[in-house]
Write a structure and sequence with these properties.
The protein is of the alpha+beta class. It is 43% helix and 13% strand. It binds FE2/S2 (inorganic) cluster. Residues 76, 78-81, 117-118, 120-121, 124, 126 line the site of FE2/S2 (inorganic) cluster.
Length: 150
Amino acid sequence: MGKAEIVDILSRHVPQEQSLIEILHDIQLRFRHLPPETLSEVARHCSVPLARVYSVATFYTAFTFTKKGDTVCRICMGTACHVKGAQLIREEAEKMLGIAPGQTTPDGKYSLEVVNCVGACAMAPVVIVNEAYQGKFRPMDLKKLLGRGE
Ligand code: FES
């Protein structure tokens, strides 16, 4: 993690408390997590106590202090997706990647997560790969998605 990158991110935001979420989002986008050492820089930039930055970072489940894989695969386990077979997708993903939800493969390539309804029930079951929604998902689609097909 380079200090210049943090300075660059901070320079793009108005130095005020209202910018906290956007700044944390940009840092996470760049580093795939929130490196703890960056938070004091954020606090200084926004002129807020470090505890305030931590409270925002820990309140929203979208933020994480654990580095994610290059590809983050989120399986929706909301009611509509569950009814349409999300559990089978989850089990297949766990088997293919050898990890449980909340974990990252040892090579750092994939992270697996389960989420609740993401507001796309008409497309159920839904899998989100990084920021891309994929609807009507089938367990067999995982092979192509995870680059582990023939
Ligand atoms: S339950 Fe999966 S998108 Fe709503």
